[in-house]
Each structure stands twice: as C-alpha cells, then as structure tokens.
Specification:
- The complex is a heterodimer of chains A (262) and B (259).
- Chain A is an alpha/beta fold.
- Chain A is built from ten helices and ten strands.
- Helix content of chain A is 37%, strand content 24%.
- In chain A, strand 4 and strand 5 (66-67) form a beta hairpin.
- The longest helix of chain A is centred in the C-terminal third of the chain and has 17 residues, at 173-189.
- Chain B is mainly α.
- Classes of the chains: A alpha/beta (262), B mainly alpha (259).
- Chain A binds chain B through residues 48, 51, 53, 73, 77-81, 83-85, 87-89, 91-94, 104-105, 108-109, 150, 153, and chain B through 30, 40, 123-124, 127-129, 131-132, 134-139, 143.
Chain lengths: 262, 259
Amino acid sequence: MNNLVEIKDLSFSYGKRIIYENVSLEIPKGKITAFMGPSGTGKTTMLRLIGGQLVPDAGSVMFDGINVHKLSRPDLYSLRRRMSMLFQSGALFTDLNVFDNVAYPIREHTKLPEEVIRDMVLMKLEAVGLRGAAGLMPHELSGGMARRAALARSIALDPELIMYDEPFTGQDPITMAVLLRLIKTLNRTLGLTSVVVTHDVSEILTIADYAYILAGTKVVAGGTPEELKKSEDPRVRQFIKGEYDGPVPFNYPTEVSYLKDL
Amino acid sequence: MFILNLILKLGSWGQRRLSAIGRATIMLFYSLVGRPQFRKNFPQLIRQIYVVGVQSISIIVVSGLFIGMVLGLQGFHVLVDFMAEGALGQMVALAIIRELGPVVTALLFAGRAGSALTAEIGLKKATEQLLSMEMMAVDPLRRVIAPRFWAGVISLPLLTIIFTLVGIFGGKLVGVDWLGVDDGIFWSGMQSSIDFWDDLMMCAIKSVVFAITVIWIALFNGYDLVPTSVGISKATTNTVVQSSLAVLGLDFVLTAVMF
C-alpha cells in the first residue's frame, strides 16, 4: 500500500509519564484514517508528533519518505506547508476577520495578487458554506461555524495531509453531520489524505477508510471499520460499543492501593 | 535539616531562573536572526509601533508634565532658602535627563505596554493561535515576537524624549511662570550645565537598554506562560514586577559604570 505517513517504533513521554511505547502505524495516501481512543491517551500528541512540534524519545516519523524530526528548522517549516492541522478550538486569529483568516496562509506563502487571493478565499469559504460570513470576526461565529472557517483556512493552500483534532467535540448533531460530510467531500474532491482524531466512534466509522484504536501507550487495534466491528478483542469491543466495564481501565493509574491510601 | 532544605530550595530556584534565561535567549535569538522579511513584517511593525508606542503617549505626557511640575515646586522651595533659585533650570533638567526621564518612562512603559503585550501573546498561546501558526509553516517567533520587539526598542527611546521635553516644560511652567524665576537665567543655566555626551547620551543609552530589557521580559513572559487563566494573570504580574526591578537595578549599574 502507498503510505503518506509511516510511524515506526515511536516512543514519547511527558517527563515521567509515558504516552507512547513502540508504536508503529501507517497513514495511507488519499484515505481517511481515524485515530480513536479514550480521552487522555495522547491522540493530539500523535498529531503534534507528525507535525514535528514535539520530538519523540525514540523511533521515527516519515512523511512521504522524509524523516520529520531529522529536518533543520527551515526545512521543517517548508515541509509543514504540505500538511495542515485543524485545531480543536479552531484557533482562528482573533484579530482578523474570517476572510483575512483564510487569506493568511496564502498571503504568507505566495506572492499572488490580491484579486486572485480574493477568489481563492471565496472558493474555500464556499466549500465550507461560509461565503456569506466572510466579513465576520471570529467572536461573532458559533462554535460550528468557527470550526468550518478554520477548516477553510487549513485547506487554503491545498495541503497533502490534513489532521483534524477532535473536530466533533461539543457540536450539535446537525453540525456534526455537516462536518462529517465536509471531511469526506474534501478528502475526495481535493485528493487529500485525512487523519481524524476523535472519540465519536459511530460517526467516524461511517466515513473512515481505516481506523486505529490507541489506548494505554499502545495501538490496541487497527483495521477497516468492518474489521474493527467484527473484532473479538475485548478492548476493541468495549471501546466500539462504549461499555462501562471492560479491560480498558477507568481509574487513573496509581502505585498506592486504595486501601492503603485511605 | 532546615538549612539543607533552604539550600535545596535555593538551588532549584536558581536552576529554574537559569533555564528561563536560557529559553528567553533562545526565543530572542530565533526571532531576530535570519533573513529579514521586510515585505511581510513592515506593516506589522508599523501597527505594533502604533499599539505599543503611540497609544502610550498620553500617559507619558501627563506623567512627564506632573513630575516636571513637582520637581520645579520642590526644587524652588529648597533653592530659594539659599537664594539660588537661578539654578532651578539646571536642577530640573539634570534630574530629568539623567535619571527620571529614562527610568520613569521605562516603568510606565512596562505597566502600560509590557503587561498588555504579555497578556496578548499569552492569550494567543492559550487559544492555540501560535501553534496553528507553526502548523501553517509560519514561524510565530519571526511574525509575532520580532515585530513587537522592534516596536518596543524603537518606541521607548522616542517616548523618553517626549517625557524629557514635557518634564522640563513642566518645571519651567511652575518655576518661571508661577513662582517667578527669571526666564533667561532658567534656560541659560540649563544650557550651560547640560553636556551632550555626559547627559544626553547617557539618557539615550539608558533608554535603549531599558527598552530591550522591558520588551524582552514582556514578550518572554507571554511566550513562556502556562496557558491557563491563572498562568496569564501570573505572567502579566511577573512582567511588571520583573521589568520594574530590572530597570531600577540596571539604572544603578549604568550610572555607576558611566560616571
């Protein structure tokens, strides 16, 4: 298979807290890959490792055959033009309106004349259904609109890889359906490779081509949605069905026993 | 045991300080070193000079005026006992040019512009705006930190000039126009006692050093803060406290070295 990102034997920890141990996974080109897992397993951390914002303790992240963490600062920045990330909060620039937000990466990285930029921005905004909101400031947008505006900004320069960090958190069912549809259409029409980090299992499995379940420093399972749904692994079953009881621990790990602590 | 704990605490405090200074230096290094990008940074620079400098003018003018007026008033009452009120111009000008001008302007600047910069950058960090810039392959150090740094370094010396001029004018207002010191003696005494190198250059050097110090502390506190509401309020306080102390300390050192 043709992979855009390949992660090999990756280990990462924040201080003493181990986030990943010897994790390997691949993100196939042109497909939608989902990273699922309980909150706090470091799914966002994985995206930031791919983007080169964090440096792993061991292992490698290859983007299109290039080792992300071996690059110099200028090379890393030029590699990042080929990828893009949609942050959980949207992270729109609060001092610019929606139009200028979307135009920002284009103005930064190209020398196109303002008329061309205008057309490009309006096309991106139309794609997310916000052409009418071009003149609004970020604080005037609803949560779902802000995320769509941020999405328009992330695709402004037609990246090869787009990483969505919890795009559905706190959204109403309609917005959620809109975002799902957008992710799918954009992936197909722009020929993107998409990575979606989420714990909205049933929603994402309707559009994902491939999914990984990350839990407790490891990749617990990986496969197509059908494979995962049929899986006999109790951890996978617990997560996919959203059961309270199961092998994935509910308690935050501690070294002292409950009895002793009291 | 108590002593040991104290030494341990002191050690870890020192280590934290040192590593903060290291991070601050790296931040400044990466923001300033590299190919200049005038086309993109120049509009930002102008905008920041407006925010940091122009918007501070009113507080600088008002403070300068009152400090000059108070100096005139206090100086007159002391000098008149010795029948030396002719030296009022010299006294006001020396005090303001050598010390009060650069120091008070820097302190006001730290409170007015420094804290605002820390809060602004901190909020950009807390709302992931800096991270998203990085992922857009735009270096926030070059695009956010650098223009604000230069704006501060350019603005503070200019504000110091304004403060000094207004302060001397305030002294003249009280001394000459109100208390009746002779106009000619006031100005000529000032003219004969101010030296270009010893006084004016000292004022200029001080204000440039203070500008770098204050703006650096403000930007670093914003860039390095813990992105929570407590973190932001702590960082803004730190900016004002640290830069005020740094300005006062450096003022003493610079005066001692240059005289």
